[in-house]
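P.,

For your records, the input lines for the assembly:
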Amino acid sequence: MRIYVCVKHVPDTAARITILGKNRIDERVTFIMNPYDENAVEEAARIKRDVGNAEVIAVTLGKQAAESTLRSALAMDADRGILIKADDHPDSMVTAAALKAAIDQDGKPDIIFTGKESIDSEGFETMYRLAANFKIPAASNAVSLSLEQGSAIVECELEAGAREVIEMSLPCVIGAGKSLNKPNYPTLPAIMKARKKEIKQIDLASLNLEKPTGRVEIIELKPAVEARQARELTGTPDEVAGEIVKILRDEARVLHD
Amino acid sequence: MQKIGILIETKDGEIKKANFGVITAARGEDRDLYAFLLDAMGEDHKNLLQEFGIHKIVEIQSGNNLISYNPVSWSKAVRQAMDHFCISTLLGLASIQGKNLLPRIAAGLNAPLVMDCSAVNLNEHTVQKSQFSGRTIATLKTVGPFHLYGIRPNAIEATPAPCDAEAVSFQAEIENDGLTVKEIKQSDSRGVDLSEADVILSGGRGLENSENFRVLFECAELMGATVGSSRVAVDEGWVPYAMQVGQTGKTVSPKVYIACGISGSVQHFAGMKTAAMIIAVNKDAGAAIMKRCDYFVVADLFEIIPALTEMLKEVANGDTTDLVE
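Structure tokens returned:
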């Protein structure tokens, strides 16, 4: 069985984001593997342990620095990595086309995992584009997965805690949600071993992708401004509660008679 | 005349309120607004939809029947309807259902899509959305023959613009392409999803255990609020992950977000900073959230919230004597 896991190198959630020029961020901050992608790698590693005969290949599109995210995946038990090198950050359509082309060059997937979203661009769409490019089914926001003969049974989160149980024929694309599993953080020996694992590097340009039929351009990035004036509510609990009710009723207008 | 398609979402047979913000965002000079309904009949909702400026209501069916829920057949049916009515711009909610359908439609059309938009300009094909956990606001432009946008629920205020709508039905060919929906498991939790709630009452480390969340549920019931939590409460196993607000949980834009015993980490703010109003209740005056809110109370939430619950009960009974005017 061959399992591909698409991961993304993103700024740490706690990193200070500084905007350079009109539409770029200063990338001299700590980068990490996109948190949901950790669940994706973990699930692939779990399946490998369960089925025995499986290979897990981590794939990313990014600058050279994204290699560190591939190393993290390798330390979480992926067997090897593929880095599609790009000079900038292409949109989701190009990314999905590049991932498809790189995987095609490498082998035939049985399952492709991604995270359910990336925490930098927050697009929620690459897994579906990847599946459409392969002409295979996809489901995202997966919270449980079991494999049966030739198919995957996936539970995906719907609203207000409801879930849909989906059956997909293999190969398929699965977007991992946070509660799919608890990632095992790598041990030191696993990190050491990961350094020796193979990472194949491909230039994005060498994939000769077709010109996309549309695109998303970043016109401008601005820091989000917060304009809140924090005011203190004081008094006894009853007085404070009374103030809050008045605020909810008169200012926020969310209490209805 | 520019035609705009709007994918309408329903819940329990009713059109979700959040759709009206999307319709409001889609309106403009010389535009024809098409509402696409997948799980409801146009005539049943005509009054409401035309109140907000919809001109044409398209019931998407197959063989004169509603198409049973399957994200693949639904998204393909919408694509067929777009094609039939020559619609190249589609808006919908970036709700959980929208996140399941809009990217499938975009992928099928190989067309650009921006999810979670907080503002749109359909003449320029530009949108605004937050990125990097809410720390930047990006202005993005879609280029190409199609333009798809998912609007963050509650981000755009709905205003009425009455007109006369016509309901028509469109028959689609169903294909599910290797994906079947076996079952929908309902949860015990009732009410609106966090991502679409008007009021959220949220608890963090200060709740101390699972049992104490009852204090929030009781108050929320009276307020018409949905209960959320910080990551700590989920990691500790006090509440399910579906309740988590933040970077790795739900992104919410309620009218009011009441944070109880939540310190207000960067990651938590990533999920709720676009709330119109934030009220913080925390014993720790130095908690980060106390500076990044509209109102704060330095007090024990177990004193404040029960008092609030009592007050709301009195208000519900028509007794407002305790409310100092």
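Two observations worth noting. Chain B has two domains: 2-171, 194-316. The domain at 2-171 of chain B is CATH 3.40.50.620 (Rossmann fold).

Regards
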